[in-house]
Amino acid sequence: MCSKAIEKDISACGLCGIINEEGFSIDGETVLRFISAMNERGNGLGAGFAGYGIYPEYRNYYALHLMYYHHRSRETVEQLIDENFEMEVSERIPTKRVISINNPPELWRYFLKPKNCPDMMGDELVVNFVTYVNAFVDGAFVMSSGKNMGVFKAVGSPKDVGEFYRIDEYEGYMWLAHTRFPTNTPGWWGGAHPFNLLDFSVVHNGELSSYGTNRRYVENFGYKCSLLTDSEVLVYLADLLTRRHKLPIHIAAFALAPPFWEQISQLPKKERELLKAIRLTYGSALANGPFTMILGFSGGMIGLSDRIKLRPLVAARKNSTLYLASEEAAIREICEKPEKIWRPVAGKPVICLLRRKLNVELYPARIHYQMEC
Amino acid sequence: MDKAIIDAKGLRSIELNRRIKDAVASGVKEILLKRVNGHRFIGTGIRGDVTITIDGVPGNDLAAFMDGPTIIVNSNAQDHVCNTMSNGTVIIHGDAGDVLGYSMQNGKLYIRGDVGYRVGVHLKAYRDKKPVIIVGGTAKDFLGEYMAGGVLIILGLGVNERVVGNFIGTGMHGGVIYIRGSVEKHQIAKEATFSEITNEDEKILETCLKDYCSHFDLDLDEVMNTKFVKIVPASYRPYGKMYVY
Amino acid sequence: MSSFIPPEFIIKWNAKKCTRCLTCIKQCSFEVFSYIEENDAIISDNSKCVGCYRCVALCPAKALIVKKNSDVFKSNHYWTPDVIKNIYKQAESGGVLLTGMGCDKPYPIYWDHMLLNASQVTNPSIDPIREPIELKTYIGRKPDRLEFRDDDIELRTTIAPQLEVDTPILFAAMSYGAISINALKALAMAAEQVGTYCNTGEGGLPQDLYEYSKNIIVQVASGRFGVDLDYLSTGAAIEIKIGQGAKPGIGGHLPGEKVTEAISRTRKIPIGTDALSPAPHHDIYSIEDLKQLIDALKEATDYSKPVGVKIAAVHNSPAIASGVARAGADFIVIDGFRGGTGAAPLVIRDHVGIPLEFALAAVDDRLREEGIRNQISIIASGGIRCSADVAKAIALGADAVYIGTAALIAMGCHMCQKCYTGKCNWGIATQDPSLVERLNPKIAAKRLVNLLNAWTLELKEILGAMGMNSIESLRGNRLQLRGIGLSDKELEILGILPAGR
Asked: Which of B56, B97, B140 sits opposite A312 (nearest CB)?
């Protein structure tokens, strides 16, 4: 829980995502170079990484990354962990001293299995646990709570944060990264991106003018927005729509960024009825305001920008690796000659899935999965 | 010395631009920038008659507030190219991003490939100052938003589907947009309207496209041998009736 | 017994300017003016003037001034002239004081204590006149979630019937009887043109209006006037009237003066009798009875249209709203105490009910707390004066608003509050044919369309300024409001932060 100011934080940023469809590893060093290429989009006051596939030996355990501002917080949380989970490993997250990263909180990770809990309820237990800790345990925050993945974030430039967390020592099949330009709460580690719940992570560039509406909607379902940044609510929406409501991923994307009514009215009947149903039912999930976001989950990642394209997004492909970034130059930094480089259409999700050889850029008139080169 | 070569690798934007400006100040007329990647504000605030060639992808705000030089990009460009440019020529041998030519007042922006959203917003013309933006591929939504003058041409070369997006010419009250291909009524905003191509238009197109084709080795006849659609403002005071006093 | 009641208004007639056209005499239904031939003068009986300003508006020479008669009693902050006059009236008649339109007393106006947000820099506003801003709203029950067949786009969930509007402003219920047929026609025509809805109120649906039924919500009130299968199946939606803001807890009131032959035919009651809708529906004494009525209406119309409930804003509105939602209503109308009426006892109009702003915030909160907010659309009603009020109502949680008083003003009403006399000089709140014909339905409809268009444009400006291009993002978004000059408790109930936070 944060006892600091209750103002909503806003920031402009740079973001990137990279995934290898076949599941081959991408090393952290590459991701570091990727996000650092966009240094001018941040102001050195926040950066973060989400790596997927980084804990293969513990792939069936929930990997919890926590930050503690008081010693007492760790005691409280570890007691809660003890009550609810079997702890396979508990250790500090390895870090390196970096001059510009001051007064870091204590950083710990745990590999856990739920206690006395049927398999399917494990996720629910973890969600409740994370919600509780973030909202009610003074000085403790869960950075990530997924399996075989982890979020590493801090106040600092991407290079410094990457060095601090020794990102170059990890490798995974998918990474999200972010550099931040916060305008308030600059000292607050919890406000850096990515935000995470279970295996959903989000990096976000922009501001949600619909935050008040989105927040009230998810809070109806037990989520608590406690991290002072509007981006946080995107992760809860993703969890609600896909895990709890079991919506197919492209439908969830439509809920977040549906086409305009004018465009819907020109579609064939079936698609028209479907999109109308989505807008009617999930109007409170609509993300308004300028944004580009990349939402990652264990099966892949989705890049999405707002319907009137007020924030940038560039995509590229080389062999089985897909790249998403705020700027083309960042992609070229780590991939000089991509096979294909394109600017996705506003409001239409770019869906990159793992090991299904389906790279889809959806057009409302062709909602079925489609092969694209 | 008349030519200069600057290696941009490892340089921050501010350092690169300092070197470029130093070169211009010392009388260099041709500058070649190598290994550019994401460097911003190239050409910004530079006046006069100099040609800058860029190998690599320049960052945002290429040629912003520029007044006179020529910039040639041998790759794609990013967003905000020619932002409030007073004069100059920018040739891009690739695609470019969003918000190009914002408030451009004169000069030329030629792109061989596709462009993104909000291209040619607030274009202004005054007497002999007339900005021209020509795109070889496609353009997306909000083309020519709030256009007050100048010429926008979208060619859609080699493209089978839609050449332009929606909301074309919202708030348009000056200037003209030519589109090589078909445009449906619902794609243009209520402040814009279709108009017949006249001989005058043919002359304008020929002049503009001749220059354009020369930069990209294209055949003028092939380019001009198709139907163009002309879009103009429906009124010069589109919001006159909206307010009550 | 002689009357002590001084006239409310004093009329000043300018003899020099007057052209003796006698328009004032012809126009005033209250018979204030007469012409004295010998003196070539217009004289006025001030005691009859109600302050409707018809004469002032129509005098071609601008020779008339109607002034408030202020200095009639010694100045007294507590025993005001109105209080004293009311006592005189009751002493003279022994009757219940009647009035029209909505509460005019100086209770705090909470709309004017809330300010709207605008975006800058970090979240830029959207240009409303050049970019799409969507105000499209669907009123009706929404599903909790969507379910699909397998992985396909085949939707398994069915959506309940909805009313679709392109702007979140509808016309409130005003009955045929309370207002004239021409006023009703104007409302229906305007609703059709703009693509919104008007509401029959308790008066049934006159035959003339059947052609507009696609845009008419039919009301089922306690008196069940004019309710039959034709009526039910013809409307776009059905609204059960439990209460109204102007007179919570008591029934509708159409004085016999206004029950003409036409009214009698539509309402199916004898000419000249007072049409009193009883306070409660005599078959609804508990929430399960309401559920039954809702089910019955849905069954009667084959589940093809939304069925909603209108309640007055009172102290336990949230609990009532929750009950109404669970009883199966598709929309709920919350009518605040500023709501208007054709006739109501003064003491009820001015002292019963609570402001819409609080009721709306409280109902929205409660429904969300119970996880049922999606099951029912909220229409906020009662004193919506401008597009800013509309925006604030939506930010507090409403899906749409009803306008009643504002619509009548658009048609020419001058708020004299004498609707119950049936002598409305503007042709709006009357059944007298010679007065009704003064209101040209086409012109009145145009004025209504203009009003709605203007507010719609303004709403787009407001949304654009907030950086939103769809109204879904404003609905219930309390963060877009800031309170000014409100106590902590009031801020808490409205669920908004104070300006500066």
From this structure: B97
* Tens of pLDDT, residues B119-152: 999 898 888 889 999 999 999 999 999 898 999 9
CATH number of C9-95: 3.30.70.20
CATH superfamily of A11-361: Aminohydrolase, N-terminal nucleophile (Ntn) domain (3.60.20.10)
The alpha-carbon gap from C55 to the nearest alpha carbon of chain B, in Å, equals 26
Please name the residue ranges forming H helices in C385-480: 387-396, 405-411, 433-436, 441-465
Q: B10-24, B30-44, C245-259, C363-377: which range is least confident on average?
A: C245-259
By percentage, how much of chain C surpasses pLDDT 90?
Answer: 73
- Taking contacts as CB-CB distances below 8 angstroms, the residues of chain C near A221 are 371
Cβ neighbours of residue B187 closer than 8 Å, sequence gap 6 or more: B164, B165, B166, B167, B168
Instruction: Supply the residues of A annotated as catalytic.
Output: 13
Give yes or no for residue A286 having a pLDDT over 50: yes
Q: Which of A210, A234, A261, A278 has the highest number of chain C CBs within 10 A, making it the mutation to test binding with C?
A: A210
Output DSSP code: residue C230.
H
Q: Tokens in use for C435? A: 């007065």
Q: Helix A249-256 vs helix A269-281: angle between axes, to the nearest 10 degrees?
A: 70
**pLDDT per position as a tens digit, C267-325:** 777 777 777 666 666 666 677 788 888 988 998 888 999 999 999 998 889 988 998 99
CB–CB of A225/A325 below 8 Å? no
Give the side-chain half-sphere CA count within 13 A for C294: 24
Indicate the fold that domain C137-144+153-469 takes in CATH. TIM Barrel (3.20.20)
Around C180, how many Cα atoms within 13 Å sit in the side-chain half-sphere?
A: 29
Say yes or no: A279 contacts chain C, CB-CB below 8 A: yes
A352-365 mean pLDDT: 49
Specify the residue for token string 């379902």: A221
Q: Taking residues C474-499, report their average pLDDT.
A: 96
Give the C-alpha separation, C374 to C330, whole Å: 10
Q: Could you tell me the two tokens for B209?
A: 């496209």
Chain A residues with CB inside 8 Å of B116's CB? 309, 343
CB contact under 8 A, C129 and B239: yes
Tokens for C237? 């939606």
DSSP A366: B
Q: Which of A180-189, C249-258, C299-308, C434-443 has the lowest mean pLDDT?
A: A180-189
Write down the domain spans for chain C: 9-95, 137-144+153-469
Ramachandran angles phi, psi of A368, nearest 5°: -70, 155
Q: What residue in C sits closest to B144 (Cα-Cα)?
A: C130
Residue B15 parent element (H or E): helix B13-25
**What is the C-alpha to C-alpha distance for residues B136 and B141, in angstroms, rounded to an integer?**
16
Query: Which class does domain B95-233 fall in?
Result: mainly beta
- Please tell me the distance in Å from B166's CA to the nearest CA on chain C: 11
In the prediction, which pLDDT does C222 show? 78
